Amino acid sequence: MNFGTLADIETRGKTVLVRVDFNSPIDPSSNTILDDKRFREHVPTLQALEDARVVVIAHQSRPGKKDFTTLAAHADKLERLLGMPVTYVDDIIGSCAKRAVYDSHPGDVVLLENVRFSAEENLSLKPEEGAKTHLVRKLAAMADLCVYDAFGTAHRSQPTITGLPYAMKTVAGLLMEKEVAMLSKVFTSAPRPVTFVLGGTKVDDSIAVAGNVLANKTADKIAVIGVVANVFYLAKGIDIGEPSRNLIRTLGYDGEVAKAKVILDSYPDKVLLPEYVAVKEQDERKEYPILTIPKDCPILDMGTDSIVQFSRELAASGSIVFNGPAGVFEEAKFASGTFELLRAAANAEFSVCGGGHTAAVIEQLGLEPQYSHLSTGGGACIEFLTGKKLPAIAALEESWKKFGN
Ligand SMILES: Nc1ncnc2c1ncn2[C@@H]1O[C@H](COP(=O)(O)OP(=O)(O)OP(=O)(O)O)[C@@H](O)[C@H]1O
Ligand SMILES: O=C(O)[C@H](O)COP(=O)(O)O
Questions:
Q1: Where along this sequence does the record place binding of (2R)-3-phosphoglycerate (predicted)?
Q2: How remote is the CA of residue 384 from the centroid of ligand 2, in Å?
């Protein structure tokens, strides 16, 4: 790693900005946080800074979305997990925020308001431009050092992600370090054969990952499930029925069919597609071979024979990267593909999972201890696995060149 870490800096008595990713599913009607995995994962970094004045910067959702809200509930959640008071300020760079930081003492934690309430944070800017924003200049003036721990947002280039490291000495926090170390193993030391299981609804990301990891030989096989599989069926000329075709259109993925075809043509023996699907027919689960999918029933899971075949394939894999479910697991009748494949993947010597939905199911099934790593990143994890350098990592490296030692 070419960036600084907590081990490289002295924080005693210093004021330290810590950029975290607390962005979590929230029930907008009660402002309740529904999953606190990301909070739990940041606790070690915050605890390691116990001798500093800690100023936490975080975002929740995006402008225009229902769960774009203040961080009051996040402060309560953090207080409970840290077992100590957290001062929440409904301000980011104004006089209230500055006063709260100025009045704090070593050992205190201040949580600033949702940083995406600042219009500047919602701009996608080059790091050097981000460093010049009012937001970054004022935040940097409040502190001596910055710790970047927000792996889940590392694929964005927004001012507090890539601008802050250009404006002040910034090192990676413990979560960031762990994510980079664990996910890098996929490229360096993962036991062979390596199988990528790509499902869920983010078809464009999954197809980009599939193309890259097959081309650079990171993966030996790709198992496609969920909506991603439906796009591969279309690429093979298989009629998946009107409802499943409409879903692909609505999600804006018609253009992905041609890309799936290129992958199938280039790697005919390396792509595993379920031969059987489960559809919803008169409110019941019915299974069909892919050549006889009914025209008016949505595909909501893979069929049982394919679950057995894929589970065998996963059992023969040394490493498994799992991203996205096999079906609409939220409906009990269509959960078996996702549940069984996650169980099979848990037995691999090295198993990594990315994506909030998938990680939540793993926790629900009690499989977490069996996985080598559950990433806090959705988009960030999948982009890392394409082999691209994430903007936040590039900015951390630049910060270390500029300000380190
Ligand atoms: N065949 C299908 N038809 C419709 N929806 C599906 C199908 N298969 C999976 N899904 C849906 O995919 C969703 C999760 O996909 P997504 O790509 O968001 O997963 P993730 O990457 O684990 O989660 P996150 O977006 O939180 O990081 C689930 O809500 C599930 O119902
Ligand atoms: O949950 C995420 O993927 C990160 O917090 C980034 O959020 P965004 O997709 O709204 O930028």
A1: 38, 116, 156
A2: 14
